[in-house]
Structures are given as structure tokens and as C-alpha cells.
Amino acid sequence: MTRSIKQWAAWRPAWPGALPRGFRGLAAALALAACALVPPASWFAAEWARGEALEELAETAQARLSLYTATLTAEIEKYRVLPLTLAWDPDVAALLASPRDAALVDRVDRKLAALNAGASLSALYVMARDGTTLASSNWTEETSFIGRNFAFRPYFREALAGRVGRYFAMGTTSQKPGYYIAYPVWAPVWAEHHTVGVVVAKVAMEPLEATWHDMAGERVFVTDRRGVVFITNVPDWRFRTLAPLPPEVRREFEASQQYEGTGLEPLPPLDSALVHRGPVPDTDWKVHVALDSRPADARARSAGLVAGIATLLLLAAGLVVLQRRLALAERLEYQRRAQLMLEHRVTERTAELSSANLRLTDEIAERGRAEQAARRAQEDLIQAAKLAALGQMAAGIVHEVNQPISAIRSYAENAALLLDRGRLDLVRGNLLEITGLTERVATITRQLKTFARKSSGMLGPVSPRLAVDRSMALLGAQAAALGADMVLEMPDEATQGPLPMVLADEARLEQVIVNLLRNALDAVSARNRRLVAVSLEQEDGHVLLKVRDTGPGIPEDDLPRLFDPFFTTKEVGVGLGLGLSISYGIVQDFGGRIAAANHEQGGAVFTVALRPAPPSGPALPPA
């Protein structure tokens, strides 16, 4: 390029005189056109590129907003059932009726501590009508809630009025923030007040913030109806405000102690961020996602630069044409040499622009590849998590599936030998056995679907013998590992006739039987004689299903509470005591009944009475 300019300067004196006046006017016009056209062209190109980039950024922000809103909703909703269930717990109701019963207080404290440990909450506690905490999961800690009065909290007032209380605040005792879910404990219909107390679960949001901190690097924060940031993956933004708070709002916060000990200063300006916000369902909260908008500005600057260069190039091309026409009129030889020089100069300039455009294209492509790689990595992580969860569910039934698969192989090999010998009748028998075994495998693997799909909820005729057989087959490997015997006792069909079909839902009936069998196997696991006996018989118009074990039996004091929610005779951490309670509810839906007793020869016996199914007709809803 330097050599071309020097050559141009060497040739310029060969021109015959000064430039013609007409050409000088056109050159001035082109200069004015450059001054007039380049800035608007650059501005329009930059604005168009910025608009496209911001639109793409907005789509990304909206997608991330939906994701963060979904994770927040799932986090605050998954703990809702625990305080609701405790609100109907008999021990909680008894404690509110007799708050000075020390043994009852100790039992409820321990129950709350066990449930809190399993659910990973900040705290579970029970409050009287005056707001005094009677029992708490942190009863052994220095910051225990027991004896403290939280009547000033809005969630307590909401629950006491018979509604679900939801509230986020800084803990006045623990000095830790959390989301409070409160449910009323209802009094009997003859009581003076409708509610006798409140059950509260406090959920910590630190795990959710830690999860957000590791997701894609966006800045995310949640505000309440006053514009206070209380959940965020940017620690410096926590308990900041979107705008300065009026004095009356600050006085309101001081009265409720919602954000006690925080400054509530405004957020710093978000000049280089694109912020999208959206509501959280069933709350007055809003989720905000702030994405860095500087890449859009950089893209706009690049587009404006390219447009300006292109405009200048077009104007330069016009100038070249004029120069060529003037050179042709003045001197053909000079025109040829000038034309060559101009072409050479345009070529060099075009090469530079092409190189710049190529580098820009490479950078854009590299950025696209990086974004695609990041998306693929994220999808791989999600898929790996799904496969890990599926592997954990499937690992428990591998042993049960392996036995029928081995049997299928044996039957198939025998069928081949029998086929060679022409024993087609025995081949048919083996094939029928294989069919049954494959159905057994399908039945076992069908258990995986229960994690994601509920039963139909409709009642119809179900074979009790088939349900028992499937349930015993599902737990056969566990019984074999314990060295326990599972036997089925059936009535004599010659004298009593065949068992009728019962009115039930097949999947839920098998769930009840499996639960009773697993409890029986747990009961005999530490005994010398390990026997689980299942019997089916007819009595008083019902089909009776009995499960008896040779375990230690059930203490007489525990029999009346055996089917209560969260009651269990197992060690702490082995179970939550919901299996028998759920089985009780299922049998009640069938219109039947379930009872427990101690067998006269030792061990426990559970009896399930089921109604016979009508001879024909469509499926029925639960009783």
C-alpha cells in the first residue's frame, strides 16, 4: 500500500495542469455525500444489528426466566405437604389440647426433629393460638423456638384465620432467612374457635441460590411486592431494593421484623444488563433475570463499522469511475497507467476488507461453536442426571428380573430339545411358561412407571390370587436373601368353590400386598424361624387376605395407633411410618377394611377384607 501511494505521487506531476472545474465539483459532491451518507448508514446498520442481538438476548432471557421460575416454584411447593399432614396428626392435636403434657411435648419434639432431618428443612414447629411455640424440631439447640412468641408474623395470622400462610423473612431467633409455610390445625366442630393452633415449616433458600449460582452465569434475583431482593445468586444484591423505600414501608418492615438487621439499600444501576422479569404463580413475587447486554453493543459497533466501510467503498468506486473518464479524455496512456494503479489500490483495499470480514466471520463462527458446545454440555449433564436417577430406581429390581430371565433361557433351551424330539405338546407348555415369565418381567418392570404415573383410580374386578402371586414374585429375591419362606395357603375349591374376583384397582392392591409382605419380611429378619404365610379365604361375604409372620409381634399399646400417619415401630431413619397409613387409605377406597393383631402362636397377622366384584359392568370410582 505504501509503494502504491509513492507511485501515485510520482505520476501526479504528469497531469496536464490542474483538475478540471467540473471534476473538482463532482469530487466535492462525493465528499459531501460521504459526510452525509456514512453516519446514517452506520447508524441504521448498528441499530438493526443491536435490535437483532437484543431480540435474541430477550428470547434467551425469557427461556431462562421460565426455567428459574419453575425451579423456584418446585422448591417452595415440594415441602407444602409436610406441614399439611402434620396439621392432621393426632399427636399435634393432642399437644394443642394439652400443652403442659411433658411426655407429649417430648414425643412431638422428637417427631418434628425426625421429619425435619429427613426433609432437610430449616425448622418445623407447632404454635398455640396465642402465637407461643409449643414444640419445635430444633428443641435441643440454643436457638430453639420453644417458648418464643411469633404472633406478630403475618404467616401466623393468615393460618390462624384458616388460610395457608406463606411468608419470606429473616428469622428473629436464628438470624437466618427462610420461606415460611403455615397451615391451621382445625378444632372439632363443637369447639369455640375454628382453629386451635398452627403448624409451620421454614424452608432455607441457600441450596436453591447455590444451584442458581452454578447455572450459566446469569444474575438472577427474586423480589417481593415491595421490590426487596430476598433470593439471588449475587450475594451483594441480597436484601437490596429496586428503588428507595418510602418511610411508611420501612415502618411496616420494622413492625413485622421481616428483614430485621438488613440495610435495604437500593441496587446499583444495571446499565449494561438486559433485565427480564415475570411473576411467580400463587405469590406476589417476581423473578428477574439480568443478562449482559455488552455483546449486543459490540455487535452493533461491528455492524456500523462494516456499513460505514461499505458506504465509503461505494463512494470510492464512484470516484474511481470519474477518475477513469477524466483520464480517458486527457490522455489514454495516463488513463491506462492510472487505471492499473487504481485497480491495484482497490484490490489491496478490498483484500484488507475481506481479511477483516473473514476474521469477523471466524470470530462469529467460533462464538456460535462455543455456544453450541455449552448447550450440548448442559444437555449431557441433564441426560446424565436422568440416567443416574433411572439407574437408582432400576437397581432395586435387577435381582428380581434376573430370575425369570434365567428361567426363560432354561425353558427356551428345553423347548429346542423337545422340538428336536417331536414333543410338540411339551414345547407348547414351555412356550406358555416363557409367556408367563415375560409377563412376570413386564409386571416387575412396570413398578418403575409408578414413579411418574398415577393409577387410573377406577375400581374393577381383580383376581386376588393373581395379585398375591405377583407381589410374592416381586419380593422373592428379598425373601431368599433373608433365608425366609413365603407360602400361600388357598381354600379347597372342591368344598368352598373358587375365590371370586374382588372390587379393587390392580396396581394399588398389589401396592398394599407388597407393603404388608415387606413389613413381614422385616419382622422375621432377626428371628431364627423366618416364615411369612399368606392365605386367601371367603367369610361373611368378603374375601379375606391374611399375612402372618413369625416375628416378635406388635406391642399391645401400639395396635390402636398402627395405621396413624408417621407412626412406626422401626428404628429412626428406616421409615417415616406412612406405609400402613397409605395401605389403610387404599383399602378404604376399595370399600374394604384392614386390621392388625397378634397371632396366638406368636408373630403378627394383618387381615384385609375386600368386597367381591359385581358379575359385570363398567369400572367404578372408589368408594
TrEMBL record:
SMART domains with a match to the protein in the record: HATPase_c (SM00387), HisKA (SM00388)
Subcellular location: Cell membrane
Coiled coil (UniProt feature): none
EC number: 2.7.13.3
Broad EC category: transferase
A Pfam short name: HATPase_c
Transmembrane segments: 303-322
Principal location class: membrane
Membrane topology: Multi-pass membrane protein
Catalysed reactions, semicolon-separated: ATP + protein L-histidine = ADP + protein N-phospho-L-histidine
InterPro entries, per the entry: HATPase_C_sf (IPR036890), HATPase_dom (IPR003594), His_kinase_dom (IPR005467), HisK_dim/P_dom (IPR003661), HisK_dim/P_sf (IPR036097), Sensor-like_sf (IPR029151), Sig_transdc_His_kin-like_C (IPR004358), Sig_transdc_His_kinase_DctB (IPR017055)
Protein name, as recorded: histidine kinase
High-level lineage: Bacteria, Pseudomonadati, Pseudomonadota, Alphaproteobacteria, Rhodospirillales
